[in-house]
Amino acid sequence: MQIATPYLMFLGDVPDRLAAKTAYGISDWRPEWCIGQIRMPHCAADLGIPDLTLAEAVEKGCRTMVVGVVNAGGTLPKHWVSEIVASLEAGLDVASGLHVRLGSIPEIAEAARANGRQLHDVRHSDETFDTGKGTKRPGLRLLTVGTDCSAGKKYAALALERGMRARGFDADFRATGQTGVFISGRGVAIDAVVADFISGAVEWIAPAADPEHWDLIEGQGSLFHPSFAGVSLGLLHGAQPDAFVICHEPTRTTMRGVQHPLPSIADVIALTVTCGRLTNPKIRPVGIAVNTQALDEAEARRLLDVLAEEHDLPATDPVRFGVEAIVDRIAVEFPGEA
Q1: pTM check: above 0.90
Q2: D-glutamate N-acetyltransferase-like C-terminal domain: which residues (predicted)?
Q3: What is each CA distance from 328 to 182, 214, 245, 333, in whole angstroms?
Q4: pLDDT 10s digits, 153-174
Q5: Angle, to 10 degrees, between the axis of helix 153-166 and the axis of helix 324-333?
Q6: Backbone angles phi, psi at 28, to 5 degrees
Q7: Which helix (H) or strand (E) holds 236?
């Protein structure tokens, strides 16, 4: 799938920042690709880049409009269809990470055909996957896991790729969600894979490698989330991680989209180790990544100190404070791998 850059980021009329996390992820990690954004009335997200009309975006050289939103079920609201049709008529391709295929909507399919434009459904892969085998394979792997969905697992994995490479590790980010695929240009949206093949798809994403190579695998959902635990478990078994980092958003009391209470970090560590031992008996935690965006710096540092002492693990906000402490722990736990 070759998606033409640069992008115009479509935010629709999403109700909050998290509902546009695909757009934020692309803008944060590939800012040079993002010319501007297009928002509908009452949109509560703002990437901090120019608001453009379709004509202005085309004039500035934009080639693809990215539907940079997420929602429960991955549906495309009916009142967005006319916006997508207009972008195709303006001469832009359209790419989406939603579950629904753009071409399954007659108006969009016809507009793409009539205007000679491309539709890219990043969440859907043409690859055929085997079932997972759980056989130990060469190479080292780290998985980010969470106390909840949308807790920073992608950002932690990307920050670790950057930090580990800077320290001389042979490390690559492996995308398992639509945003990560947009950012890295490769990967599979695991939540769109048929359940029987989830672990096999992850084995395909992070195959046998040099014994000192690290695959940094983007986690999805949470083992405790009633909506997404199935995906999280299949991902854990297929990743066969040697190490994992727990990702946490400290201001939540219930998990996103449901009324179930947020699990503790200790609970996540214990269940991840218990389940992960099926495919890697040596699995172990190496750090805690906390999204402290809602806290001031003093509060954030106090919380990180408390968590580090409580769990005997380095705790940091990967975006705010970097990942050096976690990389230090990896170097100690896996000597000679850098």
Answers
A1: no
A2: 131-327
A3: 29, 15, 13, 9
A4: 999 999 999 999 999 999 999 9
A5: 70
A6: -70, -40
A7: helix 229-239
* Band of pLDDT at residue 73, cut at 50, 70 and 90: confident
Please check the confidence at residue 47 and state whether its pLDDT lies above 70: yes
Query: How high is the pLDDT of residue 337?
Result: 56
For residue 215, what are the β-bridge partners?
A: 141, 172
How far is the CA of 184 from the CAs of 73, 107, 305, in angstroms? 24, 30, 32
Identity of residue 333: E
Q: Long-range CB contacts (< 8 A, 24+ apart) of 304-309? A: 307/248, 307/265
**Alpha carbon separation from 275 to 237, 238, 266, 278, 279 (Å, rounded):** 8, 12, 14, 6, 8
Domains in the chain and their CATH numbers?
7-121 (3.40.50.720), 140-333 (3.40.50.300)
What are φ and ψ of residue 21, in 5° steps?
-65, -25
d(CA 96, CA 119): 8
Q: Residue 209: which H helix or E strand, with range? A: none
Instruction: Tell the burial category of 308 from Cβ atoms under 10 Å away from its Cβ (0-12, 13-18, 19+).
Output: middle
Angle at Cα 190 formed by Cα 189 and Cα 194, nearest 5°? Answer: 120
